[in-house]
Amino acid sequence: MATQDDRLLMLIDDEPAQSRLVTALAAREGWRTVVVESCEEAQETLSSKEGAQVAAVLLDQWVPGDDACIFIRSLKDARPTLPIMMLTASTSPVLAVEAMRAGATDYLIKPIAPERLLSALRSATHREAPKDELQPMTEKLSEELDFDAMVGTAAPFRTAIAKAATAARGHGPVLVEGETGTGKEMLLRAMHQASTRAKAQVRLVNCAGLPGNSLESLLFGHEKGAFPGAFDRQVGLLQTCDGGTLMLDDIDRIDLPLQERLAETLKTGIVRPTGASHGFKVDVRVFGACDTALDQLVEDGQFSAALRDILSATHIVLPPLRERLGDIPALTRYFLSRIAEQPGLKHHSIADSGLTLLEAYDWPGNVRQLQAVLFRACVFENREALTAHSFPQLAQLLGDSPDRGESRARGLGVLLYEDDGNLRPLEDIEADIIRLAIGHYRGRMTEVARRLGIGRSTLYRKLSELGIDNAA
């Protein structure tokens, strides 16, 4: 296996420009890249002495054409533990499903985002750690853009959503903080969709994926000849989004001088392109998002206090999933319904054993990680219900089966499935529901019958047929 200081990436790609980009990006993480232009050349290289050192493969789908999945299977047959990532311009979930079933360990969409590639390479580096299997295996499913898609009843979460819904109707800046995967981007898009600027221009910028000078030109624009390499005039997004909304993800990753410049622009409403002798009055609403609390960064001198104060006109904090574990059943059912809509996948329900496993994990990748784990399980599970066996990586991490006491305390005590994924007999489910109702209403049989929608005589008859003690 390649060491941390000697990691070799095989790139199968016949596009020189893309090969140069991937090689440069991979070098940031300490990867050396060998580029081959065909599947035949890839097979020959893997069979060589150098090929034995290959720690990961990045395959452009267009190289093998329609036979990409066949080629992936052949690679997995030869090197079962070798991480294989597919790079494609297609956003079709069908291809993602087919690639994963063939043995691909990740699926990246062109044009490739630098941070996305680096994240995939980090996961490939530590393939022996089962926790890395829980990282997203595909790009996110297309997301709905309204607040109804924000599933959950936990108090901190509902408070954040209510605050966002109120702020959406305004015109001021908004700052959303929360760990990676908590749904910040989805919330920002929902706010824009619910705002009076919904039909106006909107752009999202990932500030972490761009060098400082490139980000400055992207936001503010520049005049021709403003600096070496400025061969043409460029209009910045602050000007392009006049009357609309500009979303800045990972806003804490902007260089400090650029933060100060952005704060001045938001304060005055005037954007001055680099090299320009005059500025332009704009009306642009800025949404910022970050994984780290800006207050702490300001204290440490790493973030502009002026920009923090402007953005914090509305400050929303999305809680991590481990602080809203009670929302996991609803989130799971929501994601399963969304996944079932994707071509090539079918509807799955969740068995009690599977739900128990999901509730026992602390989800460092939050809601996005839960979605990715469910997607992967649906790809490989042939049975109708997802059980504990559908999540082998989670089972390996958690060890012995977690106690279901906490789940039952949240009202999830009626089991619908056997451990093998098959439905329990109807009379067993019915008996559990009646026992649950008797306990919930403390043996008040008239209330039990009323809540179950049956007469008292019918209730007593069922108690006798099912052998239930009405003191249960």
Write the layout of secondary structure elements.
Elements: E1 7-12, H1 16-28, E2 31-36, H2 39-46, E3 54-60, H3 68-78, E4 84-88, H4 93-102, E5 106-109, H5 114-125, H6 155-168, E6 174-177, H7 184-193, E7 202-206, H8 212-220, E8 221-222, E9 234-235, H9 237-240, E10 245-249, H10 256-268, E11 270-271, E12 280-281, E13 285-290, H11 294-299, H12 305-311, E14 315-317, H13 328-340, E15 349-350, H14 352-360, H15 366-380, E16 385-386, H16 392-398, H17 405-409, H18 426-440, H19 445-452, H20 456-466
Parallel strand pairs: 1-2, 1-3, 3-4, 4-5, 6-13, 6-14, 7-10, 10-13, 15-16
Antiparallel strand pairs: 8-9, 11-12
Write up this protein:
β3 (54-60), α3 (68-78) and β4 form a beta-alpha-beta unit. By secondary structure, the protein is an alpha/beta fold. The strands form five sheets. Strands 2-1-3-4-5 form a five-stranded parallel sheet, with helices on both faces. The protein has 20 helices and 16 strands. Helix content is 42%, strand content 13%. Among the domains are: 7-128, Rossmann fold, CATH 3.40.50.2300; 155-317, Rossmann fold (3-Layer(aba) Sandwich); 426-466, Homeodomain-like (Arc Repressor Mutant, subunit A, Orthogonal Bundle), CATH 1.10.10. Residues 127-140 and 404-412 have low confidence and may be disordered. α1 packs across α5 (114-125), α3 runs parallel beside α4 and α10 (256-268) packs across α12 (305-311). The termini are far apart. Pfam families: AAA_lid_14, HTH_8, Response_reg, Sigma54_activat. This is DNA-binding transcriptional regulator NtrC. Keywords: Activator, ATP-binding, Cytoplasm, DNA-binding, Nitrogen fixation, Nucleotide-binding, Phosphoprotein, Repressor, Transcription, Transcription regulation, Two-component regulatory system. Residues 8-125 form the Response regulatory domain.
